Amino acid sequence: MRLSIWMFGRFPPEWSRCCYWRLRFLRNFWPIDQRKHSHNYCMEPARRVLQIVRIFMLASIVCFAFVGERVAQSATPDRNVYFAITLVAITTVGIIFAVRRLFVLRSEATLVSEPENAAALTRWRMGHLAIYALSESVALFGLVLRIMGFNLSEVTPFYLAGFALMLLFGPRRPTA
């Protein structure tokens, strides 16, 4: 082991007496130019935060379904309200695709060529947060309809659409 470490020139020979875990820890501090250039290291913390936000928002959609079942009314709802909210939800889905195209895809293209561009990273992060908020609003439309007295079978598409949109538009690493 001592010979192989010294041959590659990454550690001096006296470091070979250290524990194996120290050598693995020090491997994280090799010069960045020896790492893969295609990976965007500036983007990783933002991507992790977006993943955490996404997981909590997915869990909240499941909570909406449970709350809707506990608070549901047995009144006769107005069908026109259902169609109006359905139209608003469909429009919201269209807005989600527009936000993705305007904010996320454009900033991903910029981040591929300039990984340290802070403005593009902020635009990418805000685009994802807007997509998640809009996806959550589709599920909230289902909760509102359920509280107004609509059946679970009528409201389930809203919950599923919000959940599926949030799963579909997860934060990904930009690729060339």
Layout of helices and strands:
Layout: H1 2-8, H2 20-26, H3 44-71, H4 79-113, H5 118-148, H6 152-168
Provide a concise account of the structure shown.
The chain has 176 residues and is mostly helical. The protein is built from six helices and no strands.
Can you tell me about this structure?
By secondary structure, this protein is mainly alpha-helical. The chain folds into two domains: 2-34, no CATH class; 44-168, no CATH class. It has six helices and no strands. α3 (44-71) runs parallel beside α5 and α4 (79-113) packs antiparallel against α5 (118-148). Residues 1-8, 18-23 and 30-38 have low confidence and may be disordered.
N-C termini distance: 37 Å
Shape: elongated
Instruction: Count up the domains.
Output: 2
Helix fraction, binned, reads over 70%
- Work out the radius of gyration: 24 Å
Mean pLDDT comes to: 83
Q: Please identify the structural class as seen in this structure.
A: mainly alpha
The biggest sheet amounts to: none
Instruction: Give the DSSP E fraction (strand runs of 2 or more residues).
Output: under 5%
**Secondary structure tally: strands:** 0
Poorly predicted ranges: 1-8, 18-23, 30-38
Give me the number of helical elements.
6
Secondary-structure element pattern, one letter each: HHHHHH
Question: Any key phrases for this structure?
Answer:
176 residues; mainly alpha; 0% strand
